[in-house]
Every structure is written in structure tokens, then in C-alpha cells.
Amino acid sequence: MRRLLIPVLALGLVSGFALWQMSRPKQLPETALAGFVGDAALGEAVFHAAGCASCHAAPEATGADKRLLSGGMRFASPFGTFIAPNISPDPRHGIGGWSKTDLANAMLFGTSPDGQHYYPAFPYGSYGRMTHRREGLQDIAHLHAYLQTLPASSAPSQPHEVGFPFNIRRGLGLWKRVFLQDDWVASVPLDSAPLQRGRYLVEALGHCGECHTPRNLLGAPQTDQWLTGAANPSGTGRIPAIHALDWSEADIVYYLETGFTPDFDSAGGHMAAVVENTAKLPPSDRAAIAAYLVALP
């Protein structure tokens, strides 16, 4: 028994060390964004495209109050309830002390400044694709500059309501290794700048697939069913498909600006907040999103 115990313990230690290494959070070198200068005016467009206020403003905030990113919005899921944190520039309770690289690590890899994994309720699975466009890191630098101009909130972030085993964040490192893919999803021919821009906005910065794509039992998007609709994670209703829409490009552009559909319906729920953001984008961006959606095979 003693002879058997030693190799078993050794194997356990080696396996544990390997799993620990495999689940290690990914981070950029601190100097990775040193050459990128942020412009707050340009960062405002990134802010709207990424939908930051839609999740991080207070639950009942409207209008200009949405610029106060105090957090607190609740997102129910089969794994527990996730509560959006304070990302205002408050240095203690928000992200006022973050560097550009800290923001990049959070958005691209789901890694906090202190090296912890963020839950994928934060859509870094989509934001990670920003690295495939030349302007991706530059957009993060612009966003960082804009976030610093917003009002600060001293409201502490609330802990997520997630039970065992999902409260063991180190396990998210293995989840990321298995399920995170930063490749483009749709095989859309890149024969025009608008299509390239549209794919960047839909698949990466706008993270449309996070809601409109079904997920497997472990919460990972099933990209083979890209944008084909999904069950609402709250358990009520269904999020519609936006793949193979029978809308024209003009219909989509109008919807993204006004919230009105071709059949005289209007956006509701979280989609109303999305339209509030897309309405603030340049017309060329709304046209690019429409071109991408219409071009999907």
C-alpha cells in the first residue's frame, strides 16, 4: 500500500499543478497599450456600440443618469444571478484606478486587475474578437479615456448570487480553454469595408451573439447556431433570431435608429436599451450592421 500511495500522490500533485496552470487567467503585458493614446470623444461611440450603460447603469436609470455607471442590474441565469458591478471612475468602488491594459485584460480575456476570472455574463467572449481588427486595441484606449470623464459613484459592487460549484472562479479558466474562441463566426465574404465593419460591430464590439445565440448546458454559445435565437436566461420567453431576417437593409437601419420594425412593432425589454445605443452611432455603423446581417449565408 505504501508503494502504491507514493505514485498516486505524485500523480495527483502533477495533475493538480497542470490543472492550476491550465486555468491561469490570461493577461497582456502592462506595456501592451503604451503606444495607444485614448480620445474621449471617440471613446463615446465605442461606449455606445459596446452597450456599457445598458448593463452597468443603475436598474431604473434613464437619460443622462445612465452615465452614472454604479452597477446593480441583476441578470438571472441557470447558474445563479449575476449583478453588474460599479465601473464608474471612482478609484475605490469603481475602475478609476484601472490602466488601459487593465481594461483590455477585462474585455479581451475576462481577467481582473488582480488576476481573477470574470464570469462570462460579462461578454468578453465577444469582445475578445476585437483583436482581429486593427482598431480593436485603439478602441479600448478610446473607451478608457471616455470612462474617466463620467461621474463617479461610491456605491460598492454587489457580490454575485452564485452557488457551488460555480462560485469557484478558478474553474472558469478551464471553461475558457474549452469554449472561448476569438475567431470570427460567420463566413461572410469580406469584399467591402462596410461588411468588415459590420462584422466587427456585430460579432465583437456589439456582442449581439451573447443574447441571440443559443447556449449549451455549460453556458457556452453554440456558434453553429449563430444568431438563430435563444431561450431567455431568466427563464421567461425567447430571444428572437436575427439570422436570415426577411428585412431589407433599410428596414434594419431604421429599426436600429428608431426601434420600429417593418410590421409596426417596436423594440422592448433589453432590446430597447440596445436601440437606444445604436441610435447614437454614426449612420455608417448602422448601415454596416445591416449589411452584415443581410449578407449572412
What does this structure look like?
It is globular, with a radius of gyration of 20 Å. The protein has helices spanning 2-22, 40-50, 52-56, 100-109, 124-127, 136-147, 171-179, 193-205, 209-212, 249-258, 269-278, 283-295; strands at 74-77, 80-83, 230-231, 238-239. 41% of the residues lie in helices and 4% in strands. It is built from twelve helices and four strands, in the order αααββααααααββααα. The relative contact order is 0.14. Strands 1-2 form a two-stranded antiparallel sheet. It has a two-stranded antiparallel sheet with strand order 3-4. By secondary structure, the chain is mainly alpha-helical.
* Sheet with the most strands: spatial strand order: 1-2
Rounded mean pLDDT is 89
* Gross morphology: globular
- Separate helix tally: 12
Largest sheet: 2 strands, antiparallel
In short:
The protein has helices at 2-22, 40-50, 52-56, 100-109, 124-127, 136-147, 171-179, 193-205, 209-212, 249-258, 269-278, 283-295; strands at 74-77, 80-83, 230-231, 238-239. The chain is mainly α and 297 residues long.
Architecture blueprint of SSEs:
Layout: H1 2-22, H2 40-50, H3 52-56, E1 74-77, E2 80-83, H4 100-109, H5 124-127, H6 136-147, H7 171-179, H8 193-205, H9 209-212, E3 230-231, E4 238-239, H10 249-258, H11 269-278, H12 283-295
Short descriptors:
297 residues; mainly alpha; two-stranded antiparallel ribbon; 41% helix; globular
